[in-house]
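Inverse folding, one chain.
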């Protein structure tokens, strides 16, 4: 494990702007999640607590695919076939093979931006027009000026007899808090980008052309490394977006997008 750490540290120092590269990948990930959410909304999946987690899952799959493309772009040069008998210095062996890796290669240019929220309307149209899409009831009622939890007794007991009277201001604060925490999880992935990329390169080299000549090093599949480093932040984002969607539709049942929720609360 010590030798692997030394190799990872060496590659980390040679990477070119890894946090910028991961930011581009995350921007593409967010764009894919936005499109999935928009398509689901067109398919009448109006429950934000369901649609947003599905979009996050689709976005994370896209993220993993983009990491695989990044590995290919940065290892497309042949690693060579060094003559090792397995008994030499491991660090030098791996680094000799990684010398041919084009670390920090140029990424294809793209344009990011455009108006709209995570799954709401863009700058030129409204994906979630309340006139054309009828939201599914979620069993919650919009409150007036107070926040309370009351049990209805007019139609008997049961879980369906509970009503949340959620104040718009409180709902806005809760949604803002959840989204800030979710954004923090994304910032964490940006922060660990150098180590993430370095370990991905090591695993790609070890399980690839350097697998046979290189021994006595902890190795794993690149996908397992990616899941280990980013799986928990992705899960946190998924849960928080589900909570945010639940809160927004509880406060404003007719809203089917973040944009409609904000317009109702702030308008």
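Residues assigned per position:
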């Amino acid at each position: 494990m010590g030798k692997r750490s030394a190799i990872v540290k060496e590659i980390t120092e040679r990477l070119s702007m890894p946090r910028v590269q991961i930011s581009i990948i995350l921007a593409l990930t967010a764009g894919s999640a936005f499109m999935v959410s928009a398509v689901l909304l067109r398919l009448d999946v109006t429950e934000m607590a369901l649609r947003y987690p599905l979009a996050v899952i689709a976005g994370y799959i896209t993220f993993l695919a983009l990491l695989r493309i990044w590995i290919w772009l940065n290892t497309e040069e042949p690693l060579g076939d060094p003559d090792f008998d397995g008994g030499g210095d491991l660090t030098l062996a791996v680094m000799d093979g990684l010398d041919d890796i084009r670390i920090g290669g140029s990424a294809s240019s793209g344009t990011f931006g455009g108006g709209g929220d995570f799954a709401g309307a863009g700058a030129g149209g409204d994906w979630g027009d309340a006139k054309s899409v009828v939201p599914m009831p979620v069993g919650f009622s919009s409150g007036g000026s107070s926040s309370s939890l009351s049990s209805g007794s007019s139609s008997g007991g049961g879980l369906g007899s509970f009503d949340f009277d959620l104040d718009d201001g409180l709902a806005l604060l809760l949604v803002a808090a959840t989204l800030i925490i979710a954004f923090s999880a994304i910032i964490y992935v940006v922060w660990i980008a150098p180590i993430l990329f370095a370990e991905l390169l090591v695993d790609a080299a070890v399980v690839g052309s350097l697998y046979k000549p290189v021994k006595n090093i902890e190795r794993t599949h690149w996908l397992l490394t990616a899941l280990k480093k980013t799986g928990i932040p992705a899960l946190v984002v998924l849960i928080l977006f589900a909570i945010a969607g639940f809160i927004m539709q509880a406060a404003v049942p007719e809203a089917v997008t973040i944009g409609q929720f904000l317009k109702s609360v702030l308008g």
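DSSP finds eight helices and three strands in the chain. Residues 170 and 237 are 21 Å apart (CA to CA).
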